[in-house]
Amino acid sequence: MLRPLLVPLLTAAAVGSVFAQGQTAVADSSPFRPLPLPGPSATRTGAGRPGADYWQQRVDYRIRATLDDQRQVLSGEETILYLNRSPDALPYLWLQLDQNICSPTSVTNQLNQPPLIFLGSVFDFSCQGFAGGVTLERVGVDGAAVTPRITGTMMRIDLAQPLGPGKQATIDVAWHFPIPAYGAARMGHDGTLYEIAQWYPRLAVYDDVHGWNTDPYIGAGEFYLEYGSFEVTVTLPARYLVVATGTLQNAEEVLTDSQRQRLARAATSDSTVAIVTVDEAGHPNRTRPKSDGTLAWRFRADSVRDFAFAASPDVRWDASGLDGILIQTLYRPTAVKWQEANRMARAAIGHFSDHWYRYPYPHATTVEGPIEGMEYPMLTFVPDSPTREDLQWVVMHEFGHEWFPMIVGSNERLYPWMDEGFNTFIDLAGAAEYFAATTYGDSIEVHPLHLYPEHAVPGAEQPLISRPVEVRDLFWSAYQKPALMMSLLRDEVLGRDRFEDAFRDYIRTWAFKHPTPADFFRLMGDASGENLDWFWRGWVTSTARLDQAVDSIGIGEGGGMNVYLSNRGTMVMPLELELRLADGRAERVRLPVFMWNLGSRFAYRVAAGRRVTGAVVDPRGALPDVDRENNQWPRR
Predict the structure, then answer these.
(1) Confidence label for 29 from pLDDT (cuts 50, 70 and 90)
(2) Other Cβ atoms within 10 Å of 496 Cβ, number
(3) What is the model's pLDDT at position 317?
(4) Quick one: which H or E segment has residue 563?
């Protein structure tokens, strides 16, 4: 059963509340009927913005971890400071134990379901039979030991006294787990290259919409996390280089003099500077302050929702500067196409920053490795690729997640279209810009439209609002269809200026906060001055299909010519009409979506004195019309 948009989204009570606010009720079949959204409140306004009483919790982590590369085990101790900013007293806390996805008894391992195919990429959201899982050594709250209740990837801690509004709890946890080679397509290791994520017990989100968000980690659904600060120390053999979320605090202890000097030069350089050269890679005696024993790397980050790190003794390391941001790329010497990756990374961070919202963090780092593509604050994991185009796409896409959901903190476990889809939409423009004046660059932005016939199959397609763990074609519903939706909203409904102003407003308004679909719908409508309920209904909450047609051309009342148009599908959109005149000329008319206010048929009155011999609907082929045979008159 598909989850509704929000818990109260499609209830009769919500519909009644909408009508009670003074709107005129229309027929249930009208595509323009109001979306039954939750009523405005002091926490979330009717304009889609945080209200005067908006709140969200804060979580700060202090973590000390050790990576044992001989046994492939990660162990750690953490102190979590949890501040209850909600108006509610909390009798218990929920934490995520994501490494339990690798436990032999996990839902994912029990199901052993086949991987998802994303064009040429395979995403196996399992641990491929690896016997893993978290071992808890100690759990305590405010100095007292507690016995947690563990259910799969979730852990509940019952409190001696409810945590009241404005109060803080201190949670202490010690744990360890074996590192899988392939951890649900999101973390793991390949020989001496470690990409470590979903590795520490972390607080689930408690919000004003769902309360505790306890959806299990199965694989397809990603993450929903609170913002806070991190102070992390990672100890591992001295021959390893480490990059991570946050700012390195002890560079003088873990980097050589030449590496620190090269990094300082790179910070102000428009071109790539080699921090570890191809000749130095894999030679700890040339790249490390010492090559035996261990070193502790200390990092600090604020206003982030997660922490990840990568480590290897065998990588090249390139860096450059971009408007105060250090752009870093680390890759194995065999990944020869990665010599361009730093330039690709600069272009990606620059494109998102220049067009939408300035990158707020001190560095943007990407690491080449076995993971097909995954994102964390300031750090992404990207595989080697067969072509430049593939590499640029994945580098840009994973860095795009620094905006969605790292900055705009939507709930990926329920609504992947709000991060994967928005990101893909911007990636299309970024790829076109990077490969401008090439066949690929000139055609990439229409890619989602060309995919429509193959993926929008009646009876098989699912609404965007479906939970990702229930979606059969995640490539379409989470990535490509929402990108197509956003492109058409910009180009065919609002126009570029109105759309971009509204979307930038959405990003600014919800930066470092937790928007819901209803907030996005409302803010885009409020900021653009356009009621878009009809649009979201067609694109997000249903699998409506568009079929615009020219029925005929004839003489109307008063003797003028009419072009008779119809909407034969279940989706409404504006209509572009090309009129072919008797004198051989052609002219185009754009008709707003409100042409369908009175039903599915519309008579367009041609200006007096003009003789029309033919008409074509959607002459540019810009819309996903499912039957183009009826788009012109006379019929071919």
Answers:
(1) confident
(2) 9
(3) 98
(4) strand 561-567
Instruction: Among 361, 390, 414, identify where a domain stops.
Output: 414
Say how many residues make up the chain: 636
Q: Shortest CA distance to 88 belongs to which of 163, 171, 159?
A: 163
CB contact set of 609 (below 8 Å; sequence gap of 6+):
none
Greatest C-alpha distance within the chain:
94
Q: Does residue 467 lie within any of the structural domains?
A: no
Q: Model pTM?
A: 0.94
Cβ neighbours for 535, distance < 8 A, ≥ 6 positions apart: 489, 493, 593
Q: Is the Cα torsion angle 457, 463, 469, 474 positive or negative in sign?
A: positive
pLDDT at 27: 57
Residue 558's domain spans which residues? 548-633
CA-to-CA distance for 120 and 236, rounded, in angstroms? 36
Reading the block at residue 635, the tokens are 């019929």
Q: State the CATH number of the domain containing residue 576.
A: 2.60.40
Cβ(517)–Cβ(475) below 8 Å: no
Per-residue pLDDT, 127: 93
Q: Which is nearest to 623 in space by CA: 552, 575, 551? A: 575
**Structural domains in the chain (count):** 2
Distance, CA of 256 to CA of 268 (rounded, Å): 19
Convert the pLDDT of each residue in 442-496 to its tens digit.
Answer: 999 999 999 999 999 999 999 999 999 999 999 999 999 999 999 999 999 999 9
Average predicted confidence (pLDDT) for the chain? 94
Are residue 85 and residue 230 in the same domain, yes or no? yes
Is residue 521 assigned to a domain?
no
pLDDT digits (tens, 9 = 90+) for 382-394: 999 999 999 999 9
Check if the beta carbon of residue 225 is closer than 8 Å to that of residue 409.
yes
Which of 414, 434, 451 finishes a domain? 414
Give the three-class secondary structure for 295. Answer: strand
* 126 lies in some domain: yes
User: Cα angle at 364 between 362 and 367, to 5 degrees?
Assistant: 140
